[in-house]
């Protein structure tokens, strides 16, 4: 048997995840050296790579401003908050583009509970499908995610949505 290219992604498993992407996530999770990490799919390399990281002092607004208006991305955001018992907590949110359904010829997003999805309605259908087929693979590789919340426009991932999910 020939196993050459066995680590390559295929349509059923989605894109591979670069080691640098996994290591950057672990830096966010364990060392708190990043507030957020934005990932994109590199179609030539057939893997998910780091596009941008945010410094620990950056705000949620800095994070949302870093997301492209017209394209899909995956991201993780480390949200710090204080509970009603006055305890400092941190929860990691995963943001991803998911599949969409088509109703009357119009692409529609699928709504899932507890998921933060960045899939602007203006993004290319090919990009949305590519991100959709790769979502589970990257999600499995990034162990330690607390929540996923869906958003296809900025109002669906408002800071209040994040606060509500974290509490």
Mean pLDDT: 79
Strand content: 25-35%
The low-confidence runs, each spanning 5 or more residues with pLDDT under 50, are 1-12, 97-107, 109-117
Q: Helix count, per DSSP?
A: 4
Structure summary:
The protein is an alpha/beta fold and 167 residues long. 27% of the residues lie in helices and 26% in strands. The relative contact order is 0.18.
Write the layout of secondary structure elements.
Blueprint: E1 16-17, H1 19-31, E2 36-42, E3 47-54, H2 60-66, E4 74-82, E5 88-95, E6 100-103, E7 106-109, H3 125-141, E8 147-148, H4 159-166
Parallel strand pairs: 1-3, 5-8
Antiparallel strand pairs: 2-3, 2-4, 4-5, 6-7
InterPro entries: ADF-H, ADF-H/Gelsolin-like_dom_sf, ADF/Cofilin
Keywords: Actin-binding
Pfam family, one: Cofilin_ADF
Task: Explain the overall architecture.
With 167 residues, the chain is an alpha/beta fold. The chain contains 4 helices and 8 strands. The protein has helices at 19-31, 60-66, 125-141, 159-166; strands at 16-17, 36-42, 47-54, 74-82, 88-95, 100-103, 106-109, 147-148. Strand 2 and strand 3 form a beta hairpin. Keywords: Actin-binding. It comes from Salix suchowensis. Belongs to the actin-binding proteins ADF family.
Give me some keywords for this one.
single chain; 167 residues; alpha/beta; 6-stranded mixed β-sheet; two-stranded antiparallel sheet; 4 helices; 8 strands; globular; disordered N terminus; ADF-H; ADF-H/Gelsolin-like_dom_sf
């Amino acid at each position: 048997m020939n196993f050459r290219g066995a680590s390559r992604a295929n349509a059923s498993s989605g894109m591979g995840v670069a080691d640098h992407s996994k290591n950057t996530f672990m830096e966010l999770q364990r060392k708190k050296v990043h507030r957020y990490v934005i990932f994109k799919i590199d179609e030539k390399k057939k893997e998910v790579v780091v596009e941008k990281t945010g410094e620990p002092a950056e705000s949620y607004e800095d994070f949302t401003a870093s997301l492209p208006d017209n394209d899909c991305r995956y991201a993780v955001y480390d949200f710090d908050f204080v509970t009603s018992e006055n305890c400092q907590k941190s929860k990691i949110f995963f943001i991803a583009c998911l599949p969409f359904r088509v109703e009357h010829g119009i692409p529609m997003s699928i709504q899932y509970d507890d998921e933060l999805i960045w899939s602007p309605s203006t993004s290319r259908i090919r990009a949305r499908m590519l991100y959709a087929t790769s979502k589970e693979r990257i999600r499995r590789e990034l162990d330690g995610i607390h929540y996923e919340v869906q958003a296809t426009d900025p109002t669906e991932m408002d800071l209040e949505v994040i606060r509500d999910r974290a509490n």
